[in-house]
Amino acid sequence: MGRKGMEISVSTLEREQLLSMSRSRSLPHSLVRRAKIIVMAADGHTSQEIALRCEVTPPAITNWKKRFVAQRLAGLHDEARPGRPRTHDDEVVAELLARVLHEKPDGATHWSVRSAATQTGISKSSVARYLSLFGVQPHRSKCFKLSTDPYFVEKVRDIVGLYLSPPTHALVLCVDEKTQCQALERTQPVLPMGLGYLEGVTHDYIRHATTTLFAALDTATDEVITQCKSRHRHQEFLAFLNHVDQAVPTDLEIHLVVDNYATHKHPKVKAWLAKHRYHMHFTPTYSSWLNQVERWFGLVTQKAIRRGSFRNVRQLIISIERYVQQYNQHKRAFVWTATADSILTKVAKLSKVISGTEH
Questions:
Q1: What is the dihedral of CA 48, 53, 56, 59, to 10 degrees?
Q2: In 10 A of CB 81, how many CB atoms?
Q3: Are 175 and 215 within 8 A, CB to CB?
Q4: Over the stretch 19-34, which tens digit does the pLDDT of each residue have?
Q5: Element (H or E) spanning 215, and its range?
Q6: Is the Cα dihedral 164, 166, 171, 176 positive or negative?
Q7: Are the CB atoms for 159 and 284 separated by under 8 Å?
Q8: What SS3 state is found at 170?
């Protein structure tokens, strides 16, 4: 039998914390092993048993026992090690951030790591590290557009209400058209992808004719009803509505989420809607992101159109139809989680930033 060595006693709270540390999957392995050593020692295991179970040497066990007795749980953590003093103090870092955030470099629209390093005298690696640490990305930007619709709030609450609490015995369809889907033929054959290199396509192409993709996305099942048309007038939109009417159950009310395109408000379209079971819900101006079918348009563009090479429009339409068929077989519904209040709060905050009234 091995020697028990130093006696270890732990309180109830310390035991709970030690057990939690010993079972952790996120803490450093060394700290987890030290917690196991102390727990086993407190349970009366010998140093030989602990060494075998934790794969450590007896002197290491003695060392961590002494550290625990002297400092308790704090003794199991590594002590701060001396290192090279900081090259730049807080004031220098704050000056760098203030310059990047509030000033423009001479002759350029935005800062780069090199230009910031040149202006401040800080090394490029340090500038890159500080910008990354504070999440400052002067080389990137994103687009935005605030709606000027006087009924923005009412429309947001109406459409989000359809998504989060759809009416009973009704179907909610997000409808739109993706215009100018152009059949582009690459001027040279596509180079296939291989081990260690990417698929290659020529930067130039031959423009063929275009098609317009009409789509209706069922917000409950994510199933998509589509049609490709040569144009996108009210005649084509009416034909698509008739196509949708034949594809959906006849005993349900249909709620359509559409944008403010003039075709959707044509008198003949209004007359058709008056004779059928359809209700139109218009998104606010400059707010196409409220229409879920826009997200699906991104998918079909990425997976069926953008990297294709088509000799004519018919090939493009076949590619789109093939993707739609596969998508409807393996669909997974988008989950809308944003409430109207959360959207309006973000818009209000952005408006304050633009007007300079944010505190």
A1: -30
A2: 5
A3: yes
A4: 988 888 888 888 899 9
A5: strand 205-218
A6: negative
A7: no
A8: strand
